[in-house]
Amino acid sequence: MKTNKRWGSGARVDDLDTGKKILLKSAIDCFITKGIKSTTIEDIAKVANVTRRTVYRYFNGKSDIIAALIDIERERMFIKIHDIAALHDNNFPLMLEECIWFASSYKPPEAGKLDLVSGTNASEAAPHVDTDESDEHWRELLKEPLDAYNTRNNRNIDLDDLIRIVGRLVISYRQQPATKESFKASLKALML
């Protein structure tokens, strides 16, 4: 989609995706220096060298920007989680444990980037983390391995029930980080 929107010092942005990327990078820069809660649309516009009005052409507000950033990281994270799951495809409990651990300890791959969903940013990011989109990613990842596990072990674990607890475990461990050893011990205790 082509556009003739002016950008910053008068340079043109030729497509909507480029404009969004510039604003998202500016938002990350602001979130790193000021934190999500303290960052305003005006701050993001200033770093991007645009007006507030330009920011609102691309996003409905700060919440929309946060959601877009979390969606990007969610996609990146689940690509890696699928790789982890493939390593343990014959051992569903271990696969599940490793995937939950990875999701709960995931950080953006770029050095120095802010974790948007933990610590001081947790309250601002929380509405965007455990969403239908997250549930769909978990459903895609877990459905076939869970079906196979249920068949092999004569079990009837419900996928939707499992997804609900997985999402809450990930959020819980992101908010209260633990070592991998204590995480594994907690899961083992839960399974008793």
From TrEMBL:
InterPro entries: DNA-bd_HTH_TetR-type_CS, Homeodomain-like_sf, HTH-type_Tx_Regulator, HTH_TetR. Residues 17-77 form the HTH tetR-type domain. Gene3D superfamilies: Tetracycline Repressor, domain 2 (1.10.357.10). Keywords: DNA-binding. Residues 40-59 bind DNA. PANTHER family: ACREF/ENVCD OPERON REPRESSOR-RELATED (PTHR43479), ACREF_ENVCD OPERON REPRESSOR-RELATED (PTHR43479:SF11). This is TetR/AcrR family transcriptional regulator. It comes from Zhongshania arctica.
